[in-house]
Amino acid sequence: MTDMLYHKIIVIGSSGCGKTSIIKRYTGSPFSNNYKATIGVDFVEVSVEVDDQQVHLQLWDIAGQERYGLMKTLYYKKSSAAIVVFDITRKNTFEEAKKWRDDVVEKVALSNGVPVPIMLLANKCDLKTQAIPDQEIEEFSTTNEFFAWFKTSAKENLNISNAMTTLAKHIVKTQVPEPRSEGFHLVDPPQRIKNQRKGGCCN
């Protein structure tokens, strides 16, 4: 049996920004205000349709709490791309987004030594209080070399599928996937949830 080829995507950002909600909404779960904070790491497997082919992704939901920092090098290993999430209503999470971006650049690269592509998601855009103007986010994204950014809402299921499809298209053009490994040795073994998802905007 041939191993499935996959791209590992790490989803990171400060605690409470909605990383778990974004992943669960993308995989078809209803929105909930009662998700517990991720402990260590969890991941799901999804398939995105790009140019009539199925692109398989593993979305790794990395805990935002600082006390799990020592494990991040292990969790980041062999990543194909990263998604940095911040809460558009909380200025401090936007300021911390650069720390998360720099952490990825420092800890992980593609097999050819090139930094992994990083996408920025400004989550909770359904809320009326937007602490960071679009222009500031645009300038931040350009300065820090995020290849794309989106305003998203896990509650309203806004722009999440569009962002994931954009990510899949980007990595397909630039990377060759690797066989899925069953040998991850993690302190907190993730729960595997397999889903099939067709790409496209779900505003």
TrEMBL record:
UniProt-listed InterPro entries: P-loop_NTPase, Small_GTP-bd, Small_GTPase
GO annotation, biological process: endosome to lysosome transport; phagosome-lysosome fusion
Signal peptide: none
Species in which this protein is naturally found: Anaeramoeba ignava
GO molecular function: GTP binding; GTPase activity
Family: Belongs to the small GTPase superfamily. Rab family.
Alphabetic keyword roster: GTP-binding, Nucleotide-binding
Disordered as annotated region, ranges: 180-203
Gene3D superfamilies: P-loop containing nucleotide triphosphate hydrolases (3.40.50.300)
GO cellular component, one term: lysosome
Name of the featured protein: Rab7l1 protein
Superkingdom of this protein's organism: Eukaryota
Pfam families assigned: Ras (PF00071)
